[in-house]
């Protein structure tokens, strides 16, 4: 892989962190960044998947290192920031992509465990990692934060209560980051994919109201399944110089579902 500039991308290789990069959108984004010459820190709970992504990058001539851990743990978050700086000397781009689905449960069906895990992984963990890397970006006077939101962050009928609340929270976090740091060289944006063909699995409660209510809405409005490459391409664009004036945006990648 060459580190020469590609479309919308600065000359020097960047230090990029991608979470949830063992599979799906995160893996594809990591491979795309590496193909541009960036060094990529691949972060995921799945040790085998992390190793495969790293190996695929290296086999193609790129630079990647892996780190396994749960991003709701402060020690793991701190290690991500430390390792990225140690490996690349800088943190230019962070892709907060790791996430889990809920069980499509309505509020009265959502127990504490489901709520707390979904909010922790989808909202608290991105907050923690963003907080950890911001000092490095602010010291450099530049940086890009890209979040994987969801169609569920744009509407109320695309998932259960926990996932919907978490992804609406991601959209709010992105907009607040844009306002707070736009004068200091740091941009924040999100993609909001519709249904995408990835390894993320939904296990709805068959006896619950949530799937019965939400299921027909998703089936009638979502159109075709997207591909991980389509969402990853949008992530790489938002991290590029071509998007240098894009800040605080939540970009639907959903074949027009949000326009229905």
UniProtKB/TrEMBL annotation:
Record key words, sorted: Oxidoreductase
Pfam families attached to this UniProt entry: adh_short
InterPro entries attached to this UniProt entry: NAD(P)-bd_dom_sf, Sc_DH/Rdtase_CS, SDR_fam
Superkingdom, natural source: Bacteria
Position of the signal peptide: none
Family stated for the protein in its record: Belongs to the short-chain dehydrogenases/reductases (SDR) family.
Descriptive protein name: SDR family oxidoreductase
């Amino acid at each position: 892989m060459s580190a020469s500039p590609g479309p919308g991308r600065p000359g020097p290789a960047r230090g990029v962190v991608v979470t949830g990069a063992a599979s799906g959108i995160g893996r594809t984004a990591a491979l795309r960044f590496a193909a541009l010459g960036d060094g990529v820190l691949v972060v995921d709970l799945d040790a085998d998947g992390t190793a495969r992504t790293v190996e695929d990058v290296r086999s193609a001539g790129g630079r990647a290192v892996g780190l396994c851990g749960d991003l709701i743990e402060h020690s793991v978050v701190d290690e991500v920031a430390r390792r990225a700086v140690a490996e690349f000397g800088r943190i230019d781009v962070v892709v907060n992509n790791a996430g889990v689905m809920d069980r499509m449960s309505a509020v009265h069906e959502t127990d504490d465990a489901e709520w707390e895990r979904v909010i922790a992984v989808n909202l608290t963990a991105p907050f923690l990692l963003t907080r950890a890397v911001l000092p490095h970006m602010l010291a450099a006077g530049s940086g890009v934060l890209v979040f994987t939101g969801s169609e569920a962050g744009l509407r109320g009928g695309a998932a259960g209560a926990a996932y919907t609340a978490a992804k609406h929270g991601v959209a709010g976090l992105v907009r607040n980051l844009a306002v707070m740091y736009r004068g200091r060289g740091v941009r924040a944006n999100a993609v909001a994919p519709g249904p995408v063909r990835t390894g993320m699995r939904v296990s709805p409660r068959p006896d619950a109201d949530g799937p019965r209510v939400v299921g027909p809405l998703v089936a009638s409005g979502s159109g075709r399944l997207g591909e991980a490459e389509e969402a990853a391409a949008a992530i790489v664009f938002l991290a590029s110089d071509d998007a240098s004036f894009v800040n605080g945006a939540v970009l639907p990648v959903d074949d027009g579902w949000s326009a229905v």
